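seq as requested:
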Amino acid sequence: MNSKRQHSTRGTAIAARRWIMGGRVQGVGYRAFVFNLAQRYSLSGAVQNLTGEVLVEAQGEPFVLDAFADALISAAPPLARPHVVSCLSIPLRETNGFEILPSAESLHAQVHVPPDNFLCDDCRREMLDPVDRRYRYPFINCTQCGPRYTLITRMPYDRPNTTMADFPLCPACRAEYEDPHNRRFHAQPLACPVCGPQLSYVAAHERDHESAEGDAALAACVAALRRGETVAVKGIGGYHLICDALNTAAIARLRDNKHRPHKPLAVMFPWQGTDGLQCVRDELLLDAVTLAALCDVSRPIVLIPKGADSTLPDSIAPGLREIGAMLPYSPLHHLLLESFGAPLVATSGNVSGEPVLTDNAEAEARLGKVAQSFLHHNRPIARPADDSVLRVIANKPRMLRAGRGIAPVEFDLPFTLPQPLLAVGGHMKNSIALAWDNRAVLSPHIGDLDAPRSLEIFEQVIADLQQLYGVKAQAIVCDAHPSYTSSRWAAKQGLPLYRVQHHHAHASALAFEGGLKKTWLTFTWDGVGMGEDDMLWGGEALLGRPGAWQRVASFKPFRLPGGERAGREPWRSAAALCWESGLDWYSSARDAVLLKSAWEHGLNAPATTAVGRLFDAASSLLGLIDTASYEGQGPMLLEAAASDDGAQDKTKAIELPLHEDQNGLLVADWTPLQHALRREEVPVAQRAMQFHLSLAQTIVKQAERIHARTPFDAVGLTGGVFQNKLLAELALQQLAAAGFETYLPQQAPCNDGGLALGQLIETTCRNG
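struct tokens:
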């Protein structure tokens, strides 16, 4: 292989070809793979990183080159997602075997930013091997695992362009890094106990007296957890607040200190048993789909039903039947869970609603009243990435939050944009999206934009995505609501600005996934979004396709007493339904009488068609909740109540009246639901189930009526309401039985986390 050659040793004429490989081919060991593959096929040539692509040149017999070309795709490393951008025949040249050339910049960069990866099996085995030099080292990694997105400072993805730049490699690591036959060849986060990042532990209540470094820091953390303390642990994308998941007192203390009385807490399970899942199986009801989602390389949080014999306290997810479960994904988490030997609560280390914290000093300053101690490390995090969240609905994992391990989410567009566009999403569950040429990228979840830090991270992610992908936005897309923080920010940037109605964005994101050439009837049900008529929409059916949506169905509007406060106080929606129906409504709320008077006079009582507010009303009328401590609490409790075994068999749907208004809009009347919900002689589970069944039936009835007058190709369900597994599955089943093709989003969240993607699609299609 080291001899210079132009001809085959067999005397057969040889050829030369050049491939440009695109897709996810950087940060995944692809160059080393190509090098070793070429040696296996006895080819000469070279491989080189370009900006976002990989150049491959090879010389050999044509049939060997054909096999080599196939293997470039079929035998690629597990984390790679390569595709052939171009393949050309080139002149033969003198070669010195097969070489790996230094990285170079290409004129037309096609950057693909890799997400953060979980700990691979090979590294885990080494980490637990007492004779390995990385034994119990919490930052072990290789080309097939470890952080990526959260440590890249700029592209191309080389070590000097990461937060590992200040950790010079020791001789042993340098030898691995430079050896193409080693799986750590050019693994940019490469480190060991001699040259890499280290752990440190500090107790919040006595910083000068209790601290530790390295493995002793991990031991101190475990001891604190056994004492029932909350520890803030720095991971890959930020901090977690961690405590013993079986200790009710520890959970109560965490909730009290974080002012999070009811919102579900995620649980990280130790890797135990022959398949690593014994602890999960002991506590939760796994099926093939949830199992695959839980074990996916992204290692997301997956919502999974509790088992009948679960020992997890109800305080982890009060009133709910599912637990947000995840497996340890970093070496630090594996070591922590292995040492502790039982499940741990692992909730976001942040101030509620804000992005997860990443800086050591800021974490101590802002979480000092929540955590009793901190397990830090000194590897900087370039940008936050909260855990991804999935829920299995209709036998497929659906994304509820795009985050660490999944985002940035890259999409190929079926058209080419005339100019780069930045979409800034909504106000809640914010994420942003960037599009250029025929590509789009959805950012990780940022959060709610109420707090100053949220806006700071929002601006950082916008700047980072443009810098990483080498794209400068020339126009901005925002929600039509002028008061959203994202919309106000967009209006100040001095770039051409497009505004997209909230539900048009939801519908367009779904149509992009399901097929842009189809004519869709898309049910966009959520909390509230400003409609074209300035009413607060949220129960709409839109007919058409991106750029040409027509509102064809909705719900009977009702006025929300107190406006935006109704989102956190379900009793207000309950009161509104009663008052709209001329029924009495009783409450201990001091301002109820004054509120009704204001409502009657139309003061701060905007009209809405939102199904999300109907869910709030139902949860309050059933006595499940009056005031919510987190967004969506009422609907989640209502779904859990309806999921009682046997409730569906004992319940029939109520057919809601449909009528066309003067504009031809098909309006569903919720009034019969309000009466049924107040029938206290009927068990709560049956009334909750009847509510779900009735709404699912309404979807089908509206679809049938609309199809009879204006045929369409498929029905889509999107918006935050369809995070509800029970409602979505009932509707999909009934629509299929009625003969409709159906679609529920999978690649992007159906909630407001997917708005930015829909804004891009809607704007591009609308503007031709």
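The two ends are 54 Å apart (CA to CA).
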